[in-house]
Amino acid sequence: MSLDNQQQEKRRPDWAALAIAAALFAVAAVIAWSTASHGAGANYARVGPTTFPYVIAIAFFGLSIWTAIEALRGDFPEREKQEISPILWIIGGLAAQMLLLKVAGFSIATGLLFAATARAFGRGPLWKTIPLGIVLAFVVYVIFAKGLQLSLPAGPLEHLVF
């Protein structure tokens, strides 16, 4: 009797996977609708600009069906408990970068994102990772802004050096 209960527990639908399947289906529908609403591309060619988005939509649709079947069968492995602290560090770092990008410039804002992400992964104290992140971001700034002539937001550090 307990073996029957264990099989019933195992065959219970995985609701998180069903939600993922629904999201995949929604993405497939949005891609297909968006591609269809843009009108016909080049009608003279069999493979035109609308072909690839339709292939992607079909792939997402297939993945959604596959995920739903696996979820209903209960074939997904048991997931580990989610840790919220690292997620909050990364989200906080992204928010800090977005808020400080115009004010502090690329190097400082991205250095703070680097430090928050490193903290989320359990690496180094902030007093080490913030300066390291700023130095690495400044190198990236120099490569992209000066070497490739791309426009990145400059802040006090960039104005001090250039």
From TrEMBL:
Native source species: Aminobacter aganoensis
The protein's name: Putative tricarboxylic transport membrane protein
Annotated transmembrane regions: 15-34, 54-72, 84-114, 126-144
InterPro entries noted in UniProt: DUF1468 (IPR009936)
One Pfam match: TctB
Chain ranges of the DUF1468 domain: 19-153
Alphabetically ordered keywords of this record: Membrane, Transmembrane, Transmembrane helix
Keyword Lipid metabolism appears in the UniProt entry: no
